[in-house]
Amino acid sequence: MMRFFQPAALALTLLTSNLAFGHAVVTHNSLKLKPVPVNLASQVELSFNSKVELDLSEVFLVSAGDVMTPITATPGAKAGQVVLDLPALKPGEYAIKLKIFAADGHLSEDLLRFFVKEAK
Ligand SMILES: [Cu+2]
User: Fold this and answer.
1) CATH code for 22-116?
2) Of 116, 96, 100, 120, which is closest to residue 108 (Cα–Cα)?
3) Ion ligand 1 residue ranges (Cβ < 5 Å)
4) What pLDDT, in 10s, does the model give residues 39-98?
């Protein structure tokens, strides 16, 4: 009899784990406040709502043509804070692709788009 209940129980587990709190969600993103400079290496500061496991996480810079380049992410001063090292970038459209593991082991993916513009 139990066999009938297993698929339903599994579906419920998957559903509740997707809704569970503890996923790493970006709550602050310095790209919104501070433009990325042209042709100059810079840093982007992100804050997450939970602790993140940087050893397991992956961060990429996405450039024109969907070229993905891994970028270095280091822990910031506060819990949940992460600092990303961006290389010098030409003017254009870019994105930061995040695959972040929260301390609870859940993976969240996010894409943060930004522009690099020549200052006038
Ligand atoms: Cu979670």
Assistant:
1) 2.60.40.1220
2) 100
3) 20, 22-23, 104, 106
4) 999 999 999 999 999 999 999 999 999 999 999 999 999 989 999 999 999 999 999 999
